[in-house]
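hey m, so remember when u said the tokens were messed up on ur end? i reran from scratch. heres the input so u can diff it against urs
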Amino acid sequence: MKSVEYQTRQLIRAIKHSNVYNQYRRLQIKIFRDEALGKRVNALRKAYFTIQNKPEAPDDMNRLEALDDEYRDILQNSDVREFLTAEQGLAFMMSQMTERIYDSLDMDVSFLDD
């Protein structure tokens, strides 16, 4: 177990040194210095997350378009757009790592498919 813990710490260190993570953190710090902007960005992130992580519904695209309209003011901010893109990249990287770990181990997760 100590070897796994050590390698986990090494992986975390590598993630923290990655360009994707550092760009995300730099933009996060910049945006959230403005408390009002940070609150609006978090509200948008939460709304996106809610729509994207529930079973697909026919009107999801309409909801996403409505969100874009509602938050148009902050979406025109280049830092906000870059932050959301960086966050998406970080989430994708983390998802790929998790998928590779599951795919590499003989752990039965077929119950998730039902």
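this time it looks ok to me. DSSP finds six helices and no strands in the chain. if urs says something different then somethings off w ur setup not the seq
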